[in-house]
Amino acid sequence: MMKLLILIVVVLGILAVAQLARVYELTSRLRGKREEDISASDNRFNGRMMWLFLVLYFGFFIWLVVRYKDKMLPVAASEHGVETDWLMDFNWWILIIAFVITNVLLFWFAGKYLYNKDRRAFWQPHNNKLELAWTIVPAAVLAVIVIYGLRTWIQITAPASPDAMVVELYARQFDWTARYPGADGGLGATDVRLINGSNQMGIVTRESISTRLAELDVEISATDSMLAHAILAKTKTAELTDQVGRMRRNKSRIINLRTLMELDIAEKGVASAYMHGADDVVIKEFHLPVRKEVKLLIRSQDVIHSVYLPHLRAQMNAVPGMTTTIKMVPTITTDSMRTIMKDEVFDFILLCNKICGASHYNMQMPLIVTSAPEHEAWMAEAYKKPFQPAPAAPAPPGAPVVPPTDTTLVAPAAVAEANTTH
Amino acid sequence: MGATATAQAVNHSHEVHHHEESFISKYVFSHDHKMISKQFLVTAILMAWVAVIMSVIFRLQLAWPGEGFAFTNFFLGDKWAPGGVLDPNMYLALVTIHGTIMVFFVLTGGLSGTFANLLLPLQLGARDMASGFINMLSYWFFFMSSVIMLASLFVEGGPASSGWTVYPPLSALPKAIPGSGAGMTLWLVSMTLFIASSLMGGLNYVVTIMNLRTKGMKMTRMPLTVWALFLTAVLGILSFPVLLSACLLLLLDRSMGTSFYLSDIYMAGEALDHSGGSPVLFQHLFWFLGHPEVYIVLLPALGITSEIISTNSRKPIFGYRAMIGSILAIGFLSFIVWGHHMFITGMNPFLGSVFVFTTLLIAIPSAVKVFNYITTLWRANIVLTPAMLFSIGLVATFIAGGLTGIILADSALDINVHDTYFVVAHFHIVMGMSAIFGMFAGIYHWFPKMYGKMMNTKLGYAHFWITFFCAFGVFFPMHFIGLAGAPRRYYSYSEFRMFDGVVDLNIIVTAFAIVGALAQVIFTYNFFYSIYRGPKAVQNPWRSNTLEWTTPVAHMHGNWPGPLPVVYRWPYDYSKPGKAEDWVSQITPLEDGEEEH
């Protein structure tokens, strides 16, 4: 009923406007007034509206600033953030001056020099001095902006110092995972083909390679036997053939990877990136110590995401197939920020800021910044759950390892699911 | 010499053919530039309405997340809006298609297609475009691409949903988002046709400008609209092929198993084959078009505005040559600034610095244009027609959006506002509003030329003022939402507490958006009503100098009944001292001892 009423009101409204316009048009035609003749009163009305607009425009701007000043991002919680905030304010002052001057002139002139048939406009096709002035002045101002901007940019993007703490952030639809290096201080190498239920980042270790190979063997033979024996729809057959082809190619790539790994280990020994993986801490929490330089390594599993830490004024895309990095020094702990914000449940937040799918808007993780000792304590707790607990004796290269039972379950489950689909 | 000969040949052949045209050849497959221009315009208005309704739907969701609206349900049905609550995938689809339609179909096809077709032959003194046939093809490719884009709204999985920039891998993998299935394929097909249309149009415009200027129409006597449309066409010809190749490579990645953009992806339980590609490559290719595209959208609007501001100020445009210089500078620089869209993709920081520098350089010619517009208004004799109001509105939005552009071009500052609502506010004001204001200005100004009728001025005023207030009401607060850190393309901001403080701003924005959308009803009514029932136009209603106003009101093939006009002066002799009238048509010979300007 309400809908119908609204519809009727809208339709009637449109009709009323149309009729008014028609009446106006007919009367002006009767008076012999042509549509293109703008009457002095119309001109004056619009000229005054220009001035009114100018006032309301600036008024709206001031109202927004006053009303929402405290709702903007709070004080920057990182070292470079303080710098960029200053730069931002510096730019704002320049821009607001330009904004006010140009708008005042524009709307003032538009309302002031209204048409008068007894007057001629000032004949002024050009004025080289003026034109030179407003080429040079913006150029000079922009030069200042560029110089200050690039100075800050170069500082922000300079390589992190060698003793910076390294943390990896890993994005996928639609959550974040953090990886902290284990006691050996380095992060292990990763490969997307090793990802499975127990290794969601695809960390490369001898053990994870053999686990994944064994798993693939089971999956391949299960799919093969299904293709050979089950009666399947044509599309299903094509799909499974594709899938098993992919599995075979993945398998041969993993075998290549194993060769590379062994060569690298033979050459570098324990310094090899392939030796660092087992003690990495993979965790769905994001903790950083205050006042310590941190280098974030950012990767993605599927589509482009973006690490956005608005309170720390930091952002970097997470791109599948490559590792991007940013460095920063958090300067305010979560606790201090809670005091500053007078908000006892405030948390720094890590947001995804590159469209990544249906739940993009909820791909977030709180960031906890703590004092160094608190962070040590948290890390010590986290170290108790490394990616792979150290085996009693290192397995010889290439030796078949009996995969943990929970991962082998994946294959039969997949087969069971495929069987029930038809 | 060649130009004159061609013009005479066209003139001659015109006199030979005087047969009645059939409905099909006059209104459907017309070769006449004026009819093609009207076809572009009407198609663009219809497409714009689709995009406007989409924006109202997602603005409702953003103001009142998770609430059901009969309006939403009416347009999207129970599949995409059960109970009137917008589906998150559909939200992204709407955002994507809204952007695609507005940028390409309204502000590129609609703006250039309408005004280049209408104005180039008329303002240059030509019988028609260089190739009427290719011109017709250009429109029908545009039409087909519009139809396919609209058709993509109805496929299983919904239309393309990866943002109008369609970054892979999201746009390449249907498993990542349902819109990347058939919807994305249609998007790519539609864009391919669109690019073909745009290239055919662009080549035609350039050839026409180079070859079909009438006697006396030197390059330095061309109206600024023609200059702007000229550079627009050049930009389009040089940059759209790059988007075409980007789209084709994406099509290969999607369907043929290549790996131009894809590498090391794990999705839906398995590692994909793709290896060695880079999603960043797509971004480079996309923005190599994407940034010139901003100026493809903006330059025609600025050209139109230059013409209208000068005419209605009854004063020559200030610094004609500086205006041409700034158009050329903007055109050139627009090709070397694309990287400012990619500061946080992990691009080499030094390369980032170079893009900061080139991007801020482009602010100089833009500033020159603004100052020249303002100076044109100084001590002018201003007639505030609806077209003039929209032109002044354009200068205002160009100022507001141009200034925030300086923040975004500064890589260090971009880090924290990149992909937030600050960006949305910036480009909607500087590109969306400026270009659409230019388009409205052009429609109000040249409507008498297009249809031989006048649009209603009072309705024009109402349309302008409501639109103008709403434009700032919508996009000004968005800067603040962005400075509060709110990312764009979020379905809802209520999943966590961070944006609670700016929730009411979203409601303000939506309220203005709805009123602004309704104001377009006034325009649409005025437009279509005036075509049929508007008062008859006189030949030169705005007392303008340019050649299009020397043609008869009723359209005819070949534009001028007799020989082509001869041009003796630049187009901006308004209020020239020593003249009886405050305008002097370009076809009036110089008096003895009269300086050209």
Could you explain the architecture of this structure?
- The complex is a heterodimer of chains A (422) and B (597).
- Chain A is 51% helix and 13% strand.
- Chain A is of the alpha+beta class.
- Among the domains of chain A are: 189-275 and 391-420, no CATH class; 281-383, Immunoglobulin-like (Sandwich).
- Chain B has a single domain (30-261, 278-550), classed as Cytochrome c oxidase-like, subunit I domain (Cytochrome C Oxidase, Chain A, Up-down Bundle).
- Chain B has helices at residues 2-16, 23-28, 33-63, 70-80, 88-124, 132-151, 182-211, 224-255, 279-313, 320-333, 349-377, 386-409, 411-417, 421-451, 457-483, 503-533; strands spanning 266-267, 270-271.
- In chain B, helix 5 (88-124) packs across helix 9 (279-313) and helix 12 runs parallel beside helix 15 (457-483).
- The chains are: A alpha+beta (422), B mainly alpha (597).
- The interface between A and B is large, with 121 and 134 residues.
Q: What is the helix/strand order of chain B?
A: HHHHHHHHEEHHHHHHHH
Number of strands of chain A: 10
Count of DSSP helices of chain A? 10
User: Could you give the count of β-strands of chain B?
Assistant: 2
Assembly annotation: heterodimer
User: What is the C-alpha radius of gyration of chain B, as a whole number of Å?
Assistant: 24 Å
Q: What is the overall silhouette of chain B? A: globular
Give me the secondary-structure category of chain A.
alpha+beta
The CATH topology of chain B is given as: Cytochrome C Oxidase, Chain A
Shape of chain A: extended
